[in-house]
Amino acid sequence: MENGTDYKKIEKTAKRKKTVVSTVTYVLLTVWAVIVLFPFYWMILTSLKSYGAYNSEYIPKFFTLSPTLQNYADAFTTVSLGRYLINTTIFTVVTTAIMLFVITFAAFAFARLDFKGKNIAFLVFLSLMMIPNELVIITNFVTVTNLDMRNSFPGLILPSVTSVFYIYLLKENFEQIPDSLYFAAKVDGTSDLKYLMKVMIPISRPTLITITILKVIECWNSYVWPRLITDDENYFLVSNGIQEIRENGFGRENIPAMMAAVVVISVPLIVLFLIFRKKVMEGVSRGGTKG
Amino acid sequence: MVISMEVVLRNLTKRFPSRDRKNHEDVIAVNDFNFEIPDGKLIGLLGPSGCGKSTTLNLISGLQKPTSGRIFFGEDDVTELPPENRGIGLVFQNYALYPHLTVKQNILFPLENLKGKDKLTKAEMLDKAMEAAKLVQIDELMDRKPKELSGGQQQRVAIARALVKMPKVLLLDEPLSNLDARLRLQTREEIRRIQRETKITTIFVTHDQEEAMSISDMIVVMKEGIVQQIGKPQEVYDSPANLFVAKFLGTPPVNVFEGQVKGGRLLIGEEDVMEAGEVPDQEVYVGIRPEGFRLQEDGEFSCKLNRVEVMGRDISMVSENKASLNSTIRAIIGTENEINMDQYKENTSVRFHLLPHKVFLFHKETEERIYFGER
């Protein structure tokens, strides 16, 4: 019975400890969040300052009392930001769609079918991952130039319609599906293609969504290849469009207008990520722990 | 309501190429299997793991091709037919339900693949799915996903999916091994009931002899790809063809001793326990079923008693004998005649009378049965 007081004491210490730990955690997370979010805040803030106000600030201010949307109007009217956005959307959608098609069938072949030299072929595929991207870019450039596809969508899209890593990721995912499902489907007279469409793809949906989103981000942000392969403004993507804007878009270095352009470019990705945040995490952690 | 089929296996053999680089001999998973499975019966394929029973099932289903031999469903040679054209239903050990589909969609799946004249309208499909679901009593769960079901319910869905096409032959691969003990008992009754109602020729694979014995019309005992014995469960239990079958069937297992036959009498150790009919003089293995022992003061066979285990319905006496090949001998004594167990102390000698029809003699080299006593 005399233990009663002890329990109270233990409970109290535990409670205090918990409070301290959670306080420290929250403080650290808050600091981290501020560090991460500050550049975004700065970007949006700058885009809302007028050109005059921005240039007259000798010491940058952390807020503005007279926000303006003029910069956004300038970004769309003075330079062809709209065209860049349309180009990027076409590039992203087509590339991602073709890539999903290619990697799904490749992963299916490696995971499910039996053919001579399958393992060797896959090994060669994997070893491609060890070659740095920069090296491949040179040969790709020569190839695409020889095919006379500079300044065209096929030229932009072609080099990125496949991805060894995503094939690997998807193959691992397909292999998690028990063989017995395949045999059950076989007994029921399901063709390989139908099995892929009706069973494997629906089961691997989280991974496919993750791959789609990662690929979209990759396409949206791609810079080096579009920069190399296009010099006609009509085929610029947002990434090299932005560079163009900075250099000679507004006739002078108009930082607030540029920031407005950057905000416009970033928003679609941020929205996309926020919508599919859960799916992305799910897919990545699933692939990580199970693969 | 169902046209079921007799299944005939003729010289069925399956070899797998050896993976071992040093030893190039093929692995023979099924060796010269001959069996005519009568129409509408429930057959248990029984054997320890790796005995080729699952391979046999896969050969019948068409998922694997035999190296040689033929398979007939009724008059038709189906050896070269792909699985979907054989008219079979297959239930897997892990059920193999499609996790992203509801129970209803799972059951409908086989029907959606029907082509040509077999093609059904949406309403017909739903009717059939409902009928199959009612048969296995899951019609209340049609809109759930497999992961929202218990193991037993998943098993029923798998059976319903196999039955919905009205297969001529139903194949079950270890259907109960993923269920807990109580559910296993219940589900095996269920399988029996469904089989009786549909009268579909059913072949099911198991390593659990009790399971096979309890629901099969006939059992096939296999070992290392070779059929050891085919028969009604009780017949196989009562007259095993060889030592392996005797050991494999029965819980607790048969007690095995080294013995010899001399002048028409059977000797275990030094003791002359019973007559051995016409058997010529030779060394033998003696198998005695646990229920083949009777406590008797002047019994022929003596053992050193280790302990007495009282388990309600019956009493088992665990004892030792020098000639025994098992470390202990287990004898089951019924409780119908009241016996005062207190008189049996540990480490004392206890004497048994042996029931002749529960004693089997096996040839020392071939391990074939050579004799068993008359009742």
Describe this structure in words.
The complex is a heterodimer of chains A (291) and B (375). Chain A is mostly helical and 291 residues long. Chain A folds into two domains: 3-48; 70-290, MetI-like (MetI-like fold). Chain A has 14 helices and no strands. Chain A starts with a helix and ends with a helix. The model of chain A has no long low-confidence stretch (mean pLDDT 87). Chain B has two domains: 7-243, Rossmann fold (3-Layer(aba) Sandwich), CATH 3.40.50.300; 253-372, no CATH class. Chain B is built from eight helices and 21 strands. In chain B, the strands form four sheets. In chain B, strands 6-7-8-3-9-10 form a six-stranded mixed β-sheet, sandwiched between helices. In chain B, strands 13-12-11-14-20-21 form a six-stranded antiparallel β-sheet. Chain A binds chain B through residues 178, 180-181, 183-190, 194, 198-199, 202-203, 205, and chain B through 61-63, 82-85, 88-90, 92-94, 96, 98-101, 109-110, 113-115, 161, 165.
Using brief descriptors, characterize the structure shown.
heterodimer; A: 291 residues; mainly alpha; MetI-like fold; 2 domains; 14 helices; 78% helix; 0% strand; B: 375 residues; alpha+beta; Rossmann fold; 6-stranded mixed β-sheet; 6-stranded antiparallel β-sheet; 21 strands; 22% helix; 34% strand; elongated
